[in-house]
Amino acid sequence: MPNDRSPDDTRAWLALLRAPGIGSATARGLAVRAGGAAAALADLERLRAEFALADAALTWLRKPDDARIAADLDWLAAPDHHLVTWTDVDYPPLLREIGAAPAALFVAGDPTLLWLPQIALVGARSATAGGIANARQFARSLAGSGFAITSGLADGIDGAAHAGALDAGGATIAVMGTGPDLVYPRKHRDLAARIAERGALVTEFAPGVEAQAAFFPRRNRIISGLALGTLVVEAGVKSGSLITARLAGEQGREVFALPGSIHNPLARGCHLLIRQGAKLVETADEVAAELAPLAAALGESLRARLAAPDAPVAAEPAPAARDADYRRVLDALGYDPIGVDELAERSALSIGALSSMLLVLELDGEVISVGGGRYSRA
């Protein structure tokens, strides 16, 4: 599914993606409003007020660092390296539906795999031997049923999920919290190479961007957003996997969890999800059967796109309706920064729940992180 983006538009997208202070929502909005990234850069004076562009962003967009853009273009010139942008027809359709969709994805491997029906399989980094075995077996079985296995390339459950899909000769997609040319953790460099060869490495971060703690929750909403459903194998009650599961639920996707021993602390996160409404599953067939109708509907969408490759690309999605919890967060926030602990007291929400909600609100441009764990309304 090739795109027809011009070289000038590719350069403009790279400039937008690296502009300081411009998030995904603004980059998407600029490109859609102007009719393309290059058109947006040519019309900055008209758009600056509408999008409240900061001086630092305007300075960069008027004169981007040529060496930095050239390095990005060098990465894209390599075989099987791609940039998939919001205005491309091959932007993955399920990801397009989420409110905080990334403006673009850097892909090493086959970008058409992003249209496959996917199951996100996530869990603890410090997983037990039993958890690793379960993740590998579930991934192997689900890949054999025709699902692509999507995970985060982390230690533990993630790595086992990718390996299980590869063992079955299936497709696997690794969503990274770094640029596409860097592998974290480094021990997974060989695994990443196998994934790039037989699947896809995906990230919203440009080449050369190193891992930061704040990037991994952002990565998680792409993992859940690409997939029809998310399966949590092992997780503690404060695990990042629970953020992925919560994001999946907020995105309208299915959430599954494996039960475990009451004596295993890494089963407690799964048990919490089950109490909150996640589907308890014991076999891969249960997951496959639940998602089969959704996979068939996605297949119809793909066939329609292939039959009409010149069909117009969707514009910005309508903002997702905020549930009562989101309203409580926004009502509790003012324009003066406050810490997460105080926000939890004001909103009567747990810090774990606030973490994923603040991430979504920040990516949607409604909340600003000012550092030190403090937030304010935008």
TrEMBL record:
InterPro entries the record matches: DprA, DprA_WH, DrpA_SLOG, WH-like_DNA-bd_sf
Pfam families: DNA_processg_A, WHD_DprA
DprA winged helix domain sequence ranges: 314-373
Any one Gene Ontology BP term: DNA-mediated transformation
Smf/DprA SLOG domain segment(s): 83-291
Cited Gene3D superfamilies: 3.40.50.450, Winged helix-like DNA-binding domain superfamily/Winged helix DNA-binding domain
Top-level division of the source organism's lineage: Bacteria
UniProt family annotation: Belongs to the DprA/Smf family.
Name used for this protein in its record: DNA-processing protein DprA
Natural source organism: Tahibacter soli
Lineage: Bacteria, Pseudomonadati, Pseudomonadota, Gammaproteobacteria, Lysobacterales
